[in-house]
Protein: Dihydrofolate reductase
Organism: Paeniglutamicibacter psychrophenolicus
Amino acid sequence: MGKVVMYGSVSVDGFIADEKDDPGELFDWLVGGEVPLDESGVLKVSQASYDYTRAYWDRIGATIVGRHVFDMTDGWDGTPPGGVEHVVVVSHRPRPAGCDPEAPFHFVEGIEAAVAKAQELAGERIVEVAAGDVGGQVLAAGLVDEVRMDVAPVVFGSGKRFFGSVHAQHLLEDPDVAIRGNQVLHLRYRVRR
């Protein structure tokens, strides 16, 4: 099975969005460079960010998100972001009416079921878990192998926390990657076992 990686862009004070779910300038680094990150031509990053991010994105087999993110993005209009092949949505509610049954979304209850389904779909590839409440729950359950953060030079002061509502200490190893891009610092930590 592939690694389970908790991932997201984050402010320097640890938030993934403000209290109104607005990520503000957290994603400016995705349009702050000259190297196209995907075929859209919209996302352009520094060469350092491209080398780090593209290699990571190409290894993702499935992404786990909460229902809140799915609903907020309107299911990405049926096409998962970044070329992800499968999205596992943690939800107590079924697939929404009108959601294309052929779209690669899988609705499951509970984080353990979500990780199991994502690992089944991803095979040897990476299972990515979106930062926030669901990511924090997966970390608290001991199911995360690695934490990746794209730290943006933004201070929110309050909002939606990167680790959600985790209330216990979790130790990470020293960062084994620290890469400076335009308007971002990419960090990677292994979870201490």
